[in-house]
Write a sequence for this structure.
């Protein structure tokens, strides 16, 4: 099944050359940017999909893999419960449901009531719940739905007591939640202008506006709260403080961890929006307030974050009071419970949770079950009860109920899977990157596995946008380990594991550091007898797809297989589609001469070289991805098929009625995982 017996569908080329600061760059596959509704593009998608499906269907063991995945996937999955207006809410998936179901119950011992089941909204599970907010009185559920994986949301309002929807429908919402006012009469949300029908999945998104919607009225009557027609890239998130007195406006611009904070006094109907923080110099997140004192988490003068108190009557930075100083660990988030700060930290990419008084004195560290990730700890300021979940690479999320007054955690929900997690182990190692930087990596596999240098090993990474890769559970990864494989996760620069300095060390002109870190991780796995270049595979999605694309073009001989998923592959044109412009904070832009040179040097599409032997590659994308438009993967796959000199397959798998990944139905997830594992199992074999 090598490519010497494969005749790929023909992909036509066009005469297209662009000038970038005096450098001519050919773009022969520009026509593939036409979108899935373009007839020529649609025909290409169908030909490539048929070709790839035929190849994958013939992979030995694929059917057995899908059967095993389906069996193990069939276990109950719970989200962390949260409380609102004396009611409890949580999500549950019975096992193989395409979408999880939202339930409500009056008390934890009572009978849960189904509140919203997205599975009933489509036959194939492609309608997903993408956002929700419960009114303060517990009467209403505002919720957003996305279709076929799109970032576009349609919001509706449902009565919690009756389960019936009200008539209004809010459209053209993207990158927004909802925040109810305290009389539960309406909520704040953000939206864009309605796009042209032909451009809704490709056109750039600018000029977001903040609105107030009153329950029972049409969207046309919504009140415009804030807009900035002079700042097309600004986006807005409106949140009402717990005391109901202020609307706090989070102002974002692109993907950089820098934002503004404005507020509006809701006690005064005529109050203007006040610019509390008006410079994009750091990140600022409101934790809570006490009267006119705002507690804010920020990385200003603290790359690993700290907590400060700001007096609205005297808000200049020199008058701020530091409450929780920057620590050695990275502060990930802070909440208020039992009139105390609950602070979540990362220590070498694994969770730590600490409790502080309102004046910043350390109270205690909350004990966690081991090396893994903790999340939850939601609630209101005076709540003494909360819930959290803990997970690892080998153990699904276990839910705990936690008493803040007694420091006691009790088991609330523990899923039962049909495989023993005790048969597997995870360890953390540290390796040295090209420039001497120390980088952590998690390695998971069966206990007692003999390190013979020939183990099928899958290396996963991301390395961008200050996103941290912490231990998380995946049935597909566990099946990979059950098959005798090793699963490794490298915590690359560009992520947030060690704060903003770590993030900035993998951005713009320093982006090559991310690829060097990933390449060094692969070399470490080979040097330490886990894998060989024949048995080392790499995988990543979105920015991680870029990572895989860059590394396989820079070091094609290092890998036995590559799976770049929904990747940003054309680094010269990414900013021209949907929300791509927002990524310039991490990547830079080809509009800038210096940044163009850096982008051009690693752009996966532009660094494929004809006559090169590339590893077996399975590019994956979806026809309705309006985050990273599929043209990135289309053009890369076409160019890769043309460039490939070796006898290894270079395929593209294009999911239909799907997007960037969020809300993807379970059935589609299992199908894709089956293809991925079968591809890896077949190609990561030692000679």
């Amino acid at each position: 099944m090598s490519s010497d017996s494969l005749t790929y569908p023909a992909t036509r080329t066009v005469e297209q050359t662009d000038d970038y600061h005096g450098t001519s760059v050919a773009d022969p596959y520009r026509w593939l940017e036409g979108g899935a509704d373009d007839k020529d593009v649609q025909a290409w998608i169908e030909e490539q999909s048929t070709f790839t499906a035929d190849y994958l269907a013939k992979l030995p063991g694929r059917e057995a893999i899908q059967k095993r995945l389906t069996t193990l996937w069939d276990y109950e999955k719970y989200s962390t419960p949260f409380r609102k207006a004396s009611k409890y809410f949580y999500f549950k998936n019975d096992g193989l449901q395409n979408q999880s179901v939202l339930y409500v119950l009056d008390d934890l011992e009572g009978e849960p009531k189904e509140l919203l089941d997205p599975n009933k909204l489509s036959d194939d599970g492609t309608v997903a719940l993408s956002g929700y907010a419960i009114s303060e009185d517990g009467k209403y559920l505002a919720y957003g739905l996305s279709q076929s994986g799109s970032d576009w949301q349609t919001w509706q309002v449902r009565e919690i007591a009756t389960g019936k929807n009200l008539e209004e429908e809010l459209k053209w919402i993207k990158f927004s939640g909802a925040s109810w006012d305290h009389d539960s009469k309406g909520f704040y949300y953000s939206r864009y202008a309605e796009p042209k029908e032909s451009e809704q999945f490709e056109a750039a998104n600018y000029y977001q506006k903040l609105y107030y919607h009153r329950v029972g009225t049409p969207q046309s009557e919504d009140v415009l709260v804030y807009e900035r027609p002079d700042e097309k890239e600004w986006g807005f998130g409106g949140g009402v403080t717990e005391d109901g007195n202020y609307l706090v406006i989070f102002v974002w611009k692109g993907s950089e961890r820098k934002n503004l904070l404005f507020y509006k006094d809701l006690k005064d109907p005529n109050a203007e929006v006040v610019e509390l923080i008006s410079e994009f110099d750091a990140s600022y997140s409101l934790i809570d307030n006490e009267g006119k004192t705002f507690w804010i988490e920020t990385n200003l003068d603290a790359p690993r974050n700290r907590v400060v108190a700001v007096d609205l009557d005297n808000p200049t930075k020199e008058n701020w009071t530091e409450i929780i100083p920057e620590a050695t660990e990275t502060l990930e988030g802070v909440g208020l419970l039992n009139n105390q700060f609950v602070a979540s930290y990362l220590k070498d990419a694994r969770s730590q949770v600490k409790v502080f008084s309102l004046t910043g004195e350390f109270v205690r560290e909350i004990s966690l079950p081991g090396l893994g990730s903790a999340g939850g700890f939601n609630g209101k300021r005076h709540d003494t009860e909360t819930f959290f979940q803990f997970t690892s690479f080998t153990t699904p999320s276990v839910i705990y109920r936690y008493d803040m007054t007694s420091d006691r955690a009790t088991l609330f929900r523990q899923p039962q899977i049909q495989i023993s997690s005790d048969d597997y182990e995870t360890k953390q190692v540290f390796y040295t990157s090209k420039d001497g930087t120390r980088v952590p990596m998690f390695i998971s596999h069966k206990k007692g596995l003999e390190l013979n240098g020939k183990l099928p090993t899958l290396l996963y990474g991301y390395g961008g946008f200050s996103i941290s890769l912490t231990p998380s559970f995946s049935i597909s990864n566990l099946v990979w380990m059950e098959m005798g494989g090793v699963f490794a996760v490298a915590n690359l620069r560009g992520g947030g594991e060690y704060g903003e300095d770590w993030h900035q060390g993998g951005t713009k002109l320093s982006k090559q550091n991310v690829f060097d870190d990933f390449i060094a991780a692969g070399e470490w796995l080979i040097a330490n007898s886990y894998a060989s270049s024949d048995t080392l595979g790499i995988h990543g999605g979105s920015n991680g797809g870029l990572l895989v694309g860059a590394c396989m073009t820079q070091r094609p001989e290092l890998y036995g297989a590559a799976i770049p998923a929904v990747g940003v592959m054309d680094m010269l044109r990414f900013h021209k589609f949907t929300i791509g412009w927002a990524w310039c904070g991490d990547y830079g832009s080809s509009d800038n001469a210096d940044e163009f040179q850096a982008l051009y040097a690693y752009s996966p599409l532009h660094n494929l070289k004809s006559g090169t032997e590339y590893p077996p590659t399975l590019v994956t994308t979806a026809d309705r991805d309006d985050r990273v438009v599929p043209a990135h993967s289309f053009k890369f796959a076409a160019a890769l098929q043309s460039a490939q000199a070796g006898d290894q397959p270079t395929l593209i798998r294009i999911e239909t009625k799907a997007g960037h990944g969020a809300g993807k139905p379970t059935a589609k997830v299992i199908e894709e995982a089956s293809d991925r594992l079968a591809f890896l199992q077949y190609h990561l074999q030692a000679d």
